[in-house]
Amino acid sequence: MKSEKIAEFERFLLGFTKKNGKKLGQRTLYGVLTLAKFLEEAIPNESLEVLKQRYNFYLKERNHPIGLYALWLYLKFLGYEEKFVKEIASFKRRNVSALTDEEKLAASVLSKKELLFLVEQIPDERDKLLVRVLYDTAARISEITNLMVKDIDLEVREIQVMGKGRKPRTVYVQQGTRELLEQWINKNRLVSPNMFIFGIKPGTAWYNLKKYGREILKRELHPHMLRHSRLQHMADEGIDSFSIKSYAGHGDIGTTQIYVKASKYQGKIAFDRAGDVWNVETKKSQS
Question: At a CB cut-off of 8 Å and minimum separation 6, what does 259 contact?
Answer without folding.
Answer: 105, 228, 231, 232, 234, 235, 244
